[in-house]
Amino acid sequence: MNKIEHIGIAVKNLDESNKLFSSLFGEAHYKIEEVLSEGVRTSFFKSGPNKIELLEATNSDSPIAKFIEKKGEGIHHIAFAVDDIKSEIERLKTEGFIVLNEEPKRGADNKWVAFLHPKSTNGVLIELCQDIKD
Q: Per the database record, which ranges form the VOC domain (predicted)?
């Protein structure tokens, strides 16, 4: 794993949260994107070299809606950049981690993504991210 790619924060209302985080960081988000397969609308902010992803559910069955219902708004996941997501998935499975995605899937911000179950990572949902090269 190379670095923390971003921190994902589950929010009830993306528009209101964009205003809040714009005030916090002193600048507007740089991207809003919908990920239909995950039932979310996302917004990205930069703070120095770091990125924050706000996630709003677009339907009541989405993982974000279920997360907010269970735990409320707050940190949802920590994402790490990797060079080769498929080999990293295999390495982590060998190390005993519970991988939620056997195959990477297309995520927000032009990334391949896969997740590790929080049961195997001290209660923290971990996302692996690799840039999609066109």
A: 3-131
